[in-house]
Amino acid sequence: MKILYVVKNMRLANGVTSYAMNYYRKLVGKDIRIDFLVVNDIGSPYYDEIKANGSNIFLMPPYSKNIFATVKYINDLFKKEKYDIVHSHVLNSGSVILKLAKHYGVPVRILHAHATKSGDTKLKEIRNKFFIAISLANANSYFACSKLAGDYLYGKRKYTVINNAVDLKRYSFDQEARDRLRNEYSANDKLIVTTVGRFTKQKNPMFIVDIISALAEKTKNFEFWWFGNGILEEETKKYAEEKGVTKYINFFGANDKVNEFYSAADVFILPSLFEGLPVVGIEAQISGIPCLMSDEITREAEITDLCKYIPIDSASLWADKILEISKADRSANIRSIKKDNYDIDKQNSILREKYEALYEEKSK
User: Fold this and answer.
1) Which of 77, 163, 196, 334 is the most exposed place for a label (fewest CB within 10 A)?
2) How far is CA 142 from the centre of its chain?
3) What averages of pLDDT result for each successive group of 10 residues across the chain (364 residues)?
C-alpha cells in the first residue's frame, strides 16, 4: 500500500507533525510505504529519518510565489507516483491537492480535522471556508483527532476519530532525566513550569507571559521553560521584556528531547485559544506531570485525574492553580493515566486496519 501524507510543515513542537511521525514510525515497512508532501518547507530534523526509511519527501513550491508552478508540481507528482491513499492534514492548502488526487484516481482521499477553528482570526476563517468546501467535496473519507474537532469541521457527515497516540516508553516519567536536567540547569530547588507549542495566536503566548508575571508576584523561586518557535516569537520575547519577566524564562526553541524535559518539570500549561486535541497535552500527561489546560480545549484530552481546565480570562488564577497543582503526588498521577487509547503500539494497528478497509471499499 502506498500512502501520501500531506502536512503543512515538519516543524518540531508541532502537534500535527508529531501525530504524523508517531504513526509513520509504526506503519512504514515492507507492506506500507508512506511519503510526505510538505506544503511549507522550513527544514526539519525529521527529513533524514524519513529518507533513511526509503520514503520520499516532496517539498511543494509555495502558492504565494507562483500558483501555476505549484499546481504543475502537484500534477507531476500524481502522474509519476501512483498512490493508494492521500491523507491530508491541512485544510486550505490541501484543497487543491485533494482535488487533483481525485482527478488522478487516487482511491482513498482522507481529510483530517486537527482543530476546532479554521483560522486564528475571523478574516482567515471566512477566507478558509471556500477552501474547506473544496477539500470536503474532494475527500471521500473523514478523520478527526477528537469529537469536538470532527463535529466542527464535518457537521453531520460521518467521520472516524483517530486518537493522537504517542510512544509510551519515550514519554513515560524518567527520574534519571529529571535529576540530570534539573542539576544541569541549576533548578534543583525551583518550581519548573513548562509549555510546548508554536508561537502563534492560537497558543496564546502573550497570556502565557501574563501568567509568568502573575506567578512572579507570588513566588520568586521558579523558572518557566518554553519550547517551540514561530512567527510571534520575537514579539513574545519583547513583551516578556516589557513585563520584566525575561529572567524567569528559558527559551529552548524547538527541541527533540522535550520528552526528557517533561520529566524534569513540575507543571505543564496550555492556555490555548482553541485546539482539536493537543498531542503535547497527551505527551505531558503520559509523563505524569500535572497539567493546566484552557477550558476551550476538549475534555477528551483529559487522560489523568490531575488534568485541570480553567478559563483564560485571569492570569492570576492560572498562577494560583500552578502553585496548587505543583504539590500533587507525581507517582499517583502516573498510576492514574488511562493509557490504552493513546498507546501508539495499540492505536497504529487500528489505523492500519482502517486504511486497508477504506482501500478495499473505495478501489472497487
Assistant:
1) 334
2) 18
3) 96 88 93 96 93 96 90 96 96 93 97 86 81 95 95 95 92 94 95 96 97 97 96 97 98 93 96 93 92 94 88 97 84 58 90 96 87
Cβ 283 vs Cβ 265: under 8 Å: no
| Among the listed residues 288, 281, 283, the one whose alpha carbon sits nearest the alpha carbon of residue 306 | 288
> CA-CA distances (angstroms) from residue 308 to 186, 203, 212, 292?
28, 17, 18, 5
In three-state secondary structure terms, 360 is helix
- Map grid coordinates 527541541 to a residue: 255
Per-residue cell: 36: 510526505
Distance CA 20, CA 54 (A): 16
Q: What is the pLDDT of residue 323?
A: 96
Contact 89, 6 (CB under 8 A): yes
Q: What global pTM score does this model have?
A: 0.88
Among the listed residues 40, 37, 34, 10, the one whose alpha carbon sits nearest the alpha carbon of residue 100: 37
The amino acid that residue 253 corresponds to is G
List the 85-88 sheet strands across, edge first.
57-59, 33-38, 2-7, 85-88, 108-113, 141-144, 160-161
